[in-house]
Design brief:
With 117 residues, the chain is an alpha+beta fold. Helix 4 packs across helix 5. The protein contains 5 helices and 4 strands. The chain has a domain of 76 residues. The longest helix has 23 residues.
Length: 117
C-alpha cells in the first residue's frame, strides 16, 4: 500500500534521480579525465614521426582525433605563413613533441615500427 510515508520517500527518490542523473551524465569519461601525458606514459597514446598522435587503445581514439585536428590547424597555419607544406611543419613539430614527451611514451617511426622512449 502507498502510505503517506511511502509517497514522501518515493517523491524524494524521484527528486534525487531527476536532479543527479543529468549531472552524472555531464561528468567526463575516464579517458578524458586523464591527461595526454598520462595516456602517453601508460601506452594508450603514442606520438608519430609526422607530428600527429596515434591511438594505441581504441578507447582514446576520439581524444586522439581532437588532438590531431588541433595540431593540423596549427600546422596548416604555419605552413601557409612560411610557404612550405604542412607535412614539413608537422615533422618539425614532431621532433619537439617527442623531445618533450614523458619517458615511456610510445613512438611510431617513419618505417612503421613502434619503440618506447
Amino acid at each position: 500500500m502507498f502510505t503517506a510515508f511511502n509517497m514522501k520517500r518515493l517523491w524524494a527518490l524521484s527528486f534525487i534521480f531527476v536532479l543527479f542523473v543529468p549531472l552524472m551524465m555531464t561528468l567526463p569519461s575516464q579517458a578524458h579525465a586523464q591527461s595526454l601525458d598520462d595516456m602517453r606514459a601508460n601506452g594508450q597514446i603514442g606520438e608519430a614521426y609526422d607530428g600527429y598522435a596515434r591511438a594505441r587503445d581504441a578507447s582514446v581514439q576520439a581524444m586522439v582525433n581532437t588532438i590531431n585536428a588541433k595540431r593540423k590547424a596549427i600546422y596548416m597555419e604555419r605552413a601557409q605563413q612560411q610557404g612550405i607544406s604542412a607535412d614539413k611543419v608537422g615533422a618539425v613539430y614532431a621532433t619537439k613533441i617527442i623531445a618533450n614527451a614523458p619517458a615511456g611514451t610510445w613512438l611510431l617511426t617513419a618505417d612503421g615500427q613502434w619503440r618506447q622512449k
